[in-house]
């Protein structure tokens, strides 16, 4: 059994796109075993996303028309 390691992407339709150079080396009409590995976000990235979401939610809370204070001058 041979193994290849190469970068690939998932396109907008949810399909895995293999590089053409890899496809040229794969035998036609054979079954393949596929192992998919992907990078998970670090805990720091997860925490940053949570803080950004919380800050945006809190910021936008004050911009409702019902919350606005109008000058009566």
Keywords:
73 residues, mainly alpha, 34% helix, 5% strand, elongated
Major β-sheet profile: 2 strands, antiparallel
Rg over alpha carbons: 25 Å
Number of helices: 2
> Strand pairing plus helix content: what structural class?
mainly alpha
Structure explained in plain terms:
- The chain is mostly helical.
- The protein has one domain (9-64).
- The chain has 2 helices and 2 strands; from the N terminus they run E-E-H-H.
- The protein has helices spanning 20-25, 43-61, and strands spanning 9-10, 16-17.
- It has a two-stranded antiparallel ribbon with strand order 1-2.
- The chain is elongated, with a radius of gyration of 25 Å.
- The termini are far apart.
């Amino acid at each position: 059994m041979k193994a290849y390691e190469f970068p690939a992407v998932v396109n907008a339709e949810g399909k895995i796109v293999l590089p053409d150079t890899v496809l040229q080396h794969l035998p036609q009409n054979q079954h393949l075993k596929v192992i998919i590995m992907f990078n998970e976000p670090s805990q720091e990235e997860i925490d940053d996303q949570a803080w950004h979401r919380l800050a945006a939610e809190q910021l936008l809370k004050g911009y409702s028309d019902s919350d606005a204070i109008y000058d009566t001058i």
